[in-house]
Amino acid sequence: MAKPSRISFALLPIFIAGSVLINASQFGLLFVVAPLIAAIVIPWTAGLLFGLNPLGDAGGVLPTVLTTRLTGIQFITGLTIPGRVIGLSATVVLTLATGVVSPYSLIERGGLLLLGITVVFLSVRLAPLVGLWFPRFSAISVGQRRTVVPPSITAVVVHSLVTLGLAIPAATALLAPAGVRTALRLLVSGLVPVFLTQLAAAGMPVASGIALFQSFGATIGSIPTQWIQLVGLGGRS
């Protein structure tokens, strides 16, 4: 369980989310952004707060932990309990509450809720695994003569890249499938053929691939947006 001083150190995502919400409100987009914060940032934070530095958090009792009969699965499962309970509760409540006042359709709200639940389990299960690979044992001062052992910067970065790298594209596919389809079509039928053209000019035998990717791009442009939404939701796990 995260200590109060540890929690105050790890609340940077909440401060970031608050800043995003303030800026969104200035442009009249508060109710558009709020459900995304609830479905993505809250689950991400749950992983950062709990279990991201299991070996460092154990401190002086680490030898006892390592010599018990607990299996690795039991140890990791125990570390995920606080994140699952608190993170899941907060995500469900906030996603439902913000979804009611959002401009999203009922299907989109349901998709965001499913996304948030999935990201909670991804975030809290990934955290101890990353923390075991990149532990930190050195303490830092947080004022008033108190010290904490925060997760390593590498653990925070890896956890964030994986969690947000899966959650953000899934949310984008759910809420803006037409935009995703257009971006993919431009990439496949535009940028890739340009790159292949440059390789062909340099003597590489890739000329036949140019027409192939242009054909793929046309096919992508005809994909129903509902399919992209399903892919986004299906790929979230």
Structural class, by secondary structure, is: mainly alpha
Question: DSSP strand (E) fraction?
Answer: under 5%
Number of helices: 11
Main sheet properties: 2 strands, antiparallel
Shape: globular
For the record, give the distance between the C-alpha atoms at the N and C termini, rounded to a whole number.
25 Å
N-to-C SSE string, H for helix and E for strand: HHHHHHHEEHHHH
How many beta-strand elements?
2
Q: What key phrases describe this protein's structure?
A:
mainly alpha, 237 residues, disordered N terminus, 2% strand, 2 strands, 77% helix
Can you lay out the helices and strands and say which pair or pack?
Blueprint: H1 4-9, H2 12-26, H3 30-49, H4 54-58, H5 62-67, H6 72-100, H7 106-133, E1 140-141, E2 147-148, H8 153-175, H9 177-201, H10 207-221, H11 225-234
Antiparallel strand pairs: 1-2
Helix pairs in contact: 2-3, 3-6, 3-7, 3-8, 6-7, 7-8, 8-9, 8-11, 9-10, 9-11
Short description:
The chain has 237 residues and is mainly α. It has helices at 4-9, 12-26, 30-49, 54-58, 62-67, 72-100, 106-133, 153-175, 177-201, 207-221, 225-234, and strands spanning 140-141, 147-148.
Overall description:
The structure is a single chain. It is globular, with a radius of gyration of 22 Å. Strands 1-2 form a two-stranded antiparallel sheet. It has helices spanning 4-9, 12-26, 30-49, 54-58, 62-67, 72-100, 106-133, 153-175, 177-201, 207-221, 225-234; strands at residues 140-141, 147-148. Strand 1 (140-141) and strand 2 form a beta hairpin. Helix content is 77%, strand content 2%. Mean pLDDT is 76; it is low at 1-5 and 60-64. It is mostly helical and 237 residues long. It starts with a helix and ends with a helix.
